[in-house]
Specification:
It contains five helices and three strands. The protein has helices spanning 15-22, 35-38, 53-65, 67-84, 87-105, and strands at residues 5-7, 27-29, 46-47. It is elongated and about 60 Å long.
């Protein structure tokens, strides 16, 4: 038995990928929205092009066969989520940008 998370769609934000990373679940996704910023192909997840069912199946089978790859991807994503993608860090980053906009528009 093995666990993994696969996402194919048009979601703009990577919330479900962040949740998978927080739970140390390996991820296969498409290059949509902010997932391109979060997932580094074959480092902390696998990116499969849109509408490439053949590659999606191949990547799922690759993860199924290799516990080592699953564990490495899951651990790397977990570390990246904790280092850069927690909600408090994201809110802090948004606050900085909003403050810069306010200063710029108040001149």
């Amino acid at each position: 038995c093995f666990g993994m998370f696969s996402l194919d769609g048009q979601e703009g934000g990577p919330n479900c990928i962040l949740e998978a990373g927080a739970c140390k679940v390996p991820v296969i996704t498409t290059p949509v929205g902010l997932t391109r910023d979060l997932i580094k192909h074959k480092e902390n997840g696998i990116i499969t092009p849109h509408r490439r069912l053949d590659l999606l199946i191949s990547n799922i089978l690759r993860l199924k066969k290799s516990k080592e790859i699953r564990d490495t991807l899951a651990e790397n994503l977990h570390s990246d989520v904790l280092d850069s993608w927690t909600y408090s860090k994201r809110i802090s980053q948004i606050t900085v940008v909003l403050n810069q906009l306010v200063k710029k528009n108040s001149k």
